[in-house]
């Protein structure tokens, strides 16, 4: 069975995307000192999200690059430790240039979340789940 998961996303401007995710507080994995990609480390244990210039991504994927600003191919969901963390990350994303498509709000009485599109249109969902309020049965 697979031991690791790496998600790869195409970006238009690697330096701009790196600055965006750093502004949100994402850890950057510079272990390999690679200038052709940016590796984000998400959570513990760390899931890797690699950002590649669109041309490199297309070559690796053997397919054209989707325009994430026009159609969603995937939504990346991040678990938040609190409602406040959802609010803070949403504010940081907006300040760094993201488009917030779902303002922070309660969902089904036990979840609290928001959603934003990064600089390239990739969709991110922030979600805090209060398991003590989750409906039983």
Secondary structure blueprint with pairings:
Blueprint: E1 6-11, H1 14-23, E2 27-28, E3 38-42, E4 47-53, H2 54-61, E5 75-79, H3 83-95, E6 99-107, E7 111-117, E8 123-129
Parallel strand pairs: 1-4, 5-8
Antiparallel strand pairs: 2-3, 3-4, 6-7, 7-8
Q: What can you tell me about this protein's structure?
A:
The chain has 137 residues and is an alpha/beta fold. The protein folds into 2 domains: 61 residues, 2,3-Dihydroxybiphenyl 1,2-Dioxygenase, domain 1; 66 residues, 2,3-Dihydroxybiphenyl 1,2-Dioxygenase, domain 1 (Roll), CATH 3.10.180. Helix content is 23%, strand content 35%. The chain has a 4-stranded mixed β-sheet. A 4-stranded mixed β-sheet has the order 5-8-7-6, covered by helices on one side. The chain is globular. The model has no long low-confidence stretch (mean pLDDT 91).
Alpha-carbon Rg, integer = 16 Å
Helix % is: 10-25%
Secondary-structure-based class equals: alpha/beta
Tell me what the CATH architecture of the largest domain is.
Roll
Q: How many structural units, i.e. domains?
A: 2
Low-pLDDT sequence parts: none
Distance between the termini: 32 Å
Shape: globular
């Amino acid at each position: 069975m697979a031991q690791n998961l790496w998600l790869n996303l195409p970006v238009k401007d690697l330096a701009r995307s790196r600055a965006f995710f750093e502004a949100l507080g994402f850890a950057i994995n510079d272990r390999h000192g690679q200038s052709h990609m940016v590796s984000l480390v998400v959570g513990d244990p760390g899931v890797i999200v690699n950002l590649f210039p669109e041309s490199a991504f297309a070559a690796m994927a053997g397919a054209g690059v989707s325009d994430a600003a026009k159609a969603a191919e995937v939504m990346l969901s991040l678990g938040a430790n609190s409602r406040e963390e959802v609010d803070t990350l949403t504010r940081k994303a907006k300040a760094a240039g993201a488009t917030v498509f779902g303002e922070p709000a309660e969902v089904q009485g036990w979840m609290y979340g928001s959603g934003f599109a990064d600089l390239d249109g990739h969709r991110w969902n922030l979600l805090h789940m209060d398991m003590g309020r989750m409906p039983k049965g």
